[in-house]
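Table 4 source record.
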Amino acid sequence: MTPITATDPRTKSLDLTAANLAALRALFPELITEGKDGVAVNLDVLKQLVGDQTVTDAEEKYGLNWHGKRRARQLALTPSTGTLRPCPEDSVDWDTTQNLMIEGDNLEVLKLLQKSYAGKVKLIYIDPPYNTGRDFVYPDNFQDNIKNYLELTGQTGEGGKKLSSNTEASGRFHTDWLNMMYPRLKLARNLLREDGVIVIHIDENEYPNLEKLLDEAFGESNNLGTIVWDKRNPKGEVVGVAQQHELLSIYCRSKDAFATAAYFTRKKENAEAMLAKTASLIKSQGGITDEVRNQFKNWIKERKHELTGGEQAYSLIDENGDVYQPVSMAAPDKPETRSHRALIHPVTKKACPVPAKGWRYPDKTMDELLSQGGILFGPDETTQPRRKYLLRENMRENFSSLLYFGGSDDALELPFENPKPLAVAAKLIEPLHEKGDVILDFFAGSGTTGHAVMAQNAAAARSRRFILVQLPEPLSPENQDQKIAADYCDKLKKPRTIAELTKERLRRAGKKIREENPLFTGDLGFRVFKLASSNIRAWDPDRDKLAETLEASIEHLKTDRTEHDILFELLLKLGLDLCVPIETKKVPGAKKQAHELHSIGGGSLLVCLSPAIPQADVEPLALGLVAWHKALKPAGETTVVFRDSAFADDVAKTNLTAILHQHDLENVRSL
């Protein structure tokens, strides 16, 4: 047993300052910075996060700063005034699918998803616009981003227009890109699970700035590393070094939770071939011999350019025919928590050397390894024992910092510019094994992420879900780079937007996967939603026509919206999944006028959006709703929602509410 000394942390009381800093870091990573005496809290940022409008950055602080950063942070804090309108006609398997494809400005969409998907996303995988000196279309209007979005996409105004230019000549080459990315990353973090990961493709232009942005948004301690993707194709026409690579920055929400979950690994791609070769050699030699072991070692050496370093280390075969490698058991740090006892050599019966910092494992684990034959001893006691790692028990490994892939994506003959390769996306999605794991891509582009999710699900009979968000950026036939894509949309008889091509890619991908995997019965569909202004009419008085304005405001739900439009806005406002099961039934009124009721999530939400509920219909409607509620038997409290303007008067609304209260339906609301 290790003695406890006066300097041992176990002899001290809780460090409240450190605990408070840790709590702040977990909630708001951007608050933690460097001060003259070490770690500091940026109080100006804290004030802004709680709505203080008097913030001034008077004192210099360590960190990445640029013009507009405070405004960009405020954008992330400003609530959206929009909603998502359902589009079953554009969808595939609307009634059964758990996947989402959302058309809209991803900043607004990320805000709208905050209640329904906060803390539920396992992987965020994005390929944002690279800062190449060309225009990118993600303008953010601080006052009314929905209005800005509708103008941009041609839904108002004169057919759509680009509102943002980001050329080097503008003097805002980096600034515009940072202002675009910063609020989106802050909102994205809220959607991640505690053990969730974000992976971002980037090139050399903004990689240094992206790392600083992610340090602030996710916390520097949550940096999991960077993958250098060798594309095997250097850029041409450059001054200096021809860039042959791109980068993938990887961060998690909480490194502690991520380390505990321990899921983000990749298959050893050659492991199965190595085990098959071993079995073949043993069979050909009639047993496990020195010749088998030598031939296997030579086979490994001959393939050193094909095998990873981790795979090459498994070059030994034991008496059971298992492929293995010896690994040091020396503790890397924290010796007070490790075992320091000497291991006894099984032949000489003498003590073997103990590492200076002790063993990596506690006594209990060492005992288990000894009993299972998991420790390798040398010829005598002078050699430090090592752990025996069997290849069949270690078929996965950490992602390498190097990725070699020179192929291109199969965009299924659709005209996308520089789509992400399907194989690269598949490698990152494959580690997610839990039922219903959610993958989010809010720069969906060609739809590679959705395609990869469906393909990986079919390959391993999984049920991962995807949420894709893509701006319906107008395509211009006058722009030579976009002419082919615009013509293709014309051929499909669809609007000329990138989002239409994204949806078509998903349709084709699902069809192809179904044809190639006829026994797969999983989800190959997607629900389409489109960003729009709220279904609830905003108060906008016209002093010259006040009487008309007041009369129009009696019905504050927009008359051009459907019940389903309003229903899905309710889901967003109440924080329910957009793919939650919805049942519908009709309840007759006093004069056989049917009222449509919607049950959401097995009865946790009951909704009636009838435009008119006469006094005579109050009792039959209420009792019909009560009877359905009892039949559904929801687990928790039920919320009941009606259209406020549907009631003839306050008496009718009060009577209906009273009947529901009598039957324990206490939470009754009106829109």
